[in-house]
Specification:
This protein has nine helices and three strands; from the N terminus they run H-H-H-H-H-H-H-H-E-E-H-E. The protein is mostly helical. It is a multi-pass membrane protein.
Length: about 300
């Protein structure tokens, strides 16, 4: 089977079952909130529903990434996964707004919280449900190289710890401090906003073609191991969803034939694809030593076809 198709199928599998797990967790918490009226539990429940909802755009992105490139989308539909990441960040932020509103409302207009044992049980279930989903998402995400899925897994793990804040709120009420419930809701809101900040940085970095610097260094080292390569002048890497594409400029002996230069480029690509299993495709540009690099491809200022003086 095509490895990229296999990785996409694994991604859909992870999204589907993590969605089921989080929905089951959130529904149990809704049931407990109905009897208890805990605003901290409501905030955590909304957050879990929001986390489950992130599976929808992520699943759609994995589904569309199966489509083959065409004349309009020549690189395929991998960017949809980046758009899904942006939607996920917005959904998480929305859950923070709702949790903050409910916490402020209950702080100024307190309401009794009942069924404290159920609230404690719901918070523990929320923690366990999120931690299981986190482990599942991170495992599959690392297997297929999906940073979005891994990030969503760490997001679920953070959600699990916010569920423990609900437990603290319930313990505070049990000890005679009813204000502990809305305060726990505030703590959860702050935790959600921290997740929004971290996830937002990751998503916007991907949308701006940001990659981990270690990847660039590893590509340099791998290409330089090919003995016919005299120099590596440029390395460009970018993510398209969970697929990583690279472009490298290499310099070779200028006395080689075109056929020999092509053979070296094939060997470089072969070496990179085998050594760096996170790459989906590599484009290798061959230059003669002494004229290698993008600076040698630029055209100095000139005129033609009655156009103003310009350069390329």
């Amino acid at each position: 089977m095509d490895p990229e198709l296999l990785s996409t199928s694994r991604g859909l599998y992870a999204v589907k079952w993590s969605f089921v797990g989080l929905i089951a967790t959130a529904l149990f918490q809704v049931f407990i909130f109905w009897f208890s009226g805990s605003v901290a539990l409501l905030a955590d429940t909304l957050h879990n529903f929001g986390d489950a909802a992130t599976a929808v755009p992520l699943g759609l992105a994995f589904f569309l990434s199966r489509k083959k490139p065409n004349k309009r989308f020549t690189y395929g539909y991998g960017r949809v996964e980046d758009l899904a990441g942006l939607i996920i960040v917005l959904l998480i932020f929305l859950s923070a707004v709702v949790a903050a509103y409910e916490s402020i409302s209950r702080f100024f207009f307190p309401q009794p919280v009942e069924f404290l044992g159920g609230v404690m049980a719901a918070s523990i279930v929320g923690f366990l449900g999120n931690e299981l989903v986190a482990r599942f998402r991170i495992k599959i995400g690392k297997e297929i190289g999906s940073a979005a899925l891994v990030a969503d897994g760490y997001h679920a793990r953070a959600d699990g710890f916010t569920s423990l804040a609900v437990l603290l709120g319930a313990l505070g009420i049990w000890l005679g401090y009813p204000v502990a419930d809305p305060l726990a809701g505030f703590l959860i809101t702050i935790a959600i906003l921290k997740i929004v900040w971290d996830a937002g940085k990751s998503v916007f970095s991907r949308m701006l073609d940001g990659v981990e610097p270690d990847i660039v260094d590893e590509i340099y080292l791998t290409v330089k191991k090919v003995k016919e390569v005299k120099d590596v002048t440029e390395v460009r890497v970018r993510w398209l969803g969970h697929r990583l594409y690279a472009e490298v400029n290499i310099a070779v002996d200028p006395m080689l034939s075109v056929e020999e230069g092509h053979a070296i480029a094939v060997e470089v690509r072969h070496r990179m694809m085998h050594s760096l299993d996170y790459l989906s495709n590599v484009v290798v540009h061959v230059d003669p030593l002494g004229s290698a690099g993008e600076s040698f491809h630029r055209l100095s200022e000139h005129e033609h076809d009655n156009l103003p003086s310009h350069s390329h």
